[in-house]
Each structure stands twice: as structure tokens, then as C-alpha cells.
Amino acid sequence: MFGLSPTQTVFYGDGLSSPLARECTASVGTTLGSRGHTKVSYIRRTTSDVVEDFVTLDGGATTILVDGQSFGTFDNRIFRNTDMLERNYDALQFQGRMQVTDDFLIDGSWTMQLRKDGNFESEATNQPAIPSAAFDYPEITPAVPVLSNWSA
User: Fold this and answer.
1) Are 114 and 44 in contact, with CB atoms under 8 Å apart?
2) Which one of 7, 29, 91, 111 is least enclosed by Cβ atoms within 10 Å?
3) Residue 28 sits in which domain range?
């Protein structure tokens, strides 16, 4: 349990930084006469140096005091970067555009996911940077779980 006052039990490790996302994209395309074009792109994205919370026996605990009243002692959460969690993604993206008439344009794209793997989800709809349980009490829990289907 992390307590009623997270400002007293949450800490940030030295050198904490945003996760590192590397992306490489290569594209080829052609024109379709004078009024259109198509393009195919290959996308590779990897994420490392993920921000994660660590809850360990070594991290200590804090007694929560609010207006002089004690609410108990709760474990500290320390946020820091780790390379033990990762996300990898590959895709092909198809794009096309055709100016049918001066007043009518057809434009579209489609992305085909080729690979989506890793051992960390880290986000959900309207909830960016969600910490996992991967490093919560490692003294008593199994190693980092491998998630076969994370959300992009």
C-alpha cells in the first residue's frame, strides 16, 4: 500500500529522464500521372530507458502525517529509468492520393503491423506512463513478466 499522501512516499532517482524512443523510417513512392502519388513506408520503433517505479524493501517506508495525525507507515516508490523493460514495433504504411477532379480528392493510408513485442505496456487510453508491477517487491515476486500483447 502506498499511502494517502503520494507526495510523501514517491521519490525520483538521480538522472531520471524520459524514455528513449528510436524510430527508423524508409519510404519509396511514385507519381500517378500528374494528379496523384503513392508511397510505401517501413517503420521500426524501439523504446528503452523506460521510466518505472521500484518498490523494494531497500527503498524504505515513510510514516504518513497529515495535520499532525498519523495514518500509518507505507512503502516508498522510487521512479527511475531501466533497460530491463522494452517495446519493439515494426510496420508497413501504405499511402495514396489522387486528385480526381479539381474539386474532388481521394486520399488514404493504411498501416499493417508486422511486429509488436516486448515486456512492457506502459500506457492505456488517456493514461500515459503507467508503471508496471515488474519491480514491485522483487525480493518476493518472480522476474519481469513477458507480455506477449501490449497496447500500442
Assistant:
1) no
2) 7
3) 6-128
